[in-house]
Design a protein that fits this description.
The protein is mainly α and about 350 residues long. Helix content is about 50%, strand content about 5%. The protein has 15 helices and two strands. It has a two-stranded parallel ribbon. Strand 1, helix 3 and strand 2 form a beta-alpha-beta unit. Helix 7 runs antiparallel to helix 8, helix 8 packs across helix 13 and helix 12 runs antiparallel to helix 13. The model has no long low-confidence stretch (mean pLDDT about 90).
Length: about 350
């Protein structure tokens, strides 16, 4: 991209490959299959539509600019072969049809948003598992990448459910646990609706605080997506002019700064693709208020490295770290960084 980072790094690429391979194997066990191809969707999908005489193509509508541009390219290509692209809005905990207000009137203050939807909306029940799938007998068989066996398949349906169970079990002792399930939710291996109902059903006096924090993260995820829908592209614009110092940025991304805590966090990010909430806040505020760099560059590095990357969530958080978020009361400032610097012992102990 324009910052010379990859939009998808190796860690997330491998995670996605394993997730898709697991999905393919699951469909095959139910009598179905998943056709996999390498190339641009606007080139491949119209060819498949014509080859198999497909009536309509279905997809979940996205909201960030890069993803919607891909959808538009596919839609245009399908129109050229006289086929329709059917849009669905999904991925969220709440259905927008269940909101007490239209998208244009969604409260920008997160706490008000949270109170209103908790009071006046419902989380629908999740669908039951599919027992079997019927597909046409003439579908072609498509190979998966030859190196899939070298990835040691660890990201599958069982791993996703286990991660949720572990988060619930540890909720009585910890509150910063969303990182356990966020990669699986980001890539569709866990639905937010299923996760929500599991969390509610397992809540008790001893784990209430931890469970509520997990649910709060699901609500924030919805909030960021709906804000990006209400204010298109709002989380991808920097309202301040920041000088971009290549050397400072390089030291931050590589974990070679003068700050030992930052280096520990960045090395963890670069080797695992995982950070908890406290680590994300600390290293982001350091980048913005200590190094005084363009926060979009930092967000772009997170986009490359994090395995739980989702456009609205990651850029939404960074915008709020940079005092440019939509929920004014939740914005961070330089004062938050100064306070965090004075009390970074807890961060070190967490690491």
């Amino acid at each position: 991209n324009k910052y010379n980072f990859f939009n998808t790094g190796e860690l997330r690429k491998n995670f996605i490959i394993q997730a898709v391979f697991s999905f393919k194997k699951k469909l095959q066990s139910l009598g179905g299959d998943l056709l996999t191809f390498e190339g641009y969707p606007e080139d491949i999908i119209p060819q498949l539509v014509q080859k198999y005489d497909v009536d309509e193509v279905y997809h979940h509508r996205e909201i960030a600019q890069r993803e919607t541009s891909i959808s538009e390219a596919v839609e245009t290509a399908l129109w050229n072969v006289k086929r329709n692209l059917k849009h669905f809005i999904g991925h969220t905990l709440f259905h927008k049809e269940d909101f007490p207000f239209p998208v244009r009137d969604i409260p920008t203050d997160f706490n008000i948003f949270k109170k209103k939807i908790n009071k006046e909306s419902i989380v629908r029940p999740s669908f039951p598992s599919v027992e079997s799938i019927t597909i046409p007998p003439h579908l072609e068989k498509t190979p998966f990448p030859d190196d899939i066996d070298q990835l040691n398949l660890i990201q599958d349906e069982e791993t996703a459910f286990l991660a949720l169970d572990m988060a619930i079990n540890d909720a009585k002792n910890e509150t910063d646990l969303y990182w356990r399930i966020s990669p699986y939710i980001a890539h569709g291996m866990l639905s937010p609706i299923y996760s929500y109902h599991q969390l509610i059903s397992k809540a008790n006096k001893s784990n209430k605080k931890g469970i509520n924090t997990l649910i709060d993260n699901l609500l924030r995820r919805d909030y960021f997506r709906f804000m990006l829908k209400k204010f298109p592209n709002c989380y991808f614009i920097n309202e301040c002019e920041n000088v971009e110092d290549i050397n400072l940025i390089k030291a931050w991304t590589e974990g070679t700064t003068d700050n030992v805590t930052i280096n520990t966090i960045m090395n963890k990010l670069n080797t695992t693709g995982i950070l908890n909430a406290q680590e994300r806040i600390y290293t982001s505020l350091y980048f913005i208020y200590e190094l005084k760099q363009n926060w979009l560059v930092g967000a772009s590095w997170f986009e490359q490295q994090l395995i739980d990357y989702a456009p609205a969530t990651i850029y939404g958080y960074w915008a709020h770290y940079a005092e440019q978020g939509t929920s004014i009361k939740n914005n961070k400032t330089v004062k938050d960084w100064e306070k965090l610097k004075e009390n970074n012992t807890n961060v070190v102990e967490t690491l």
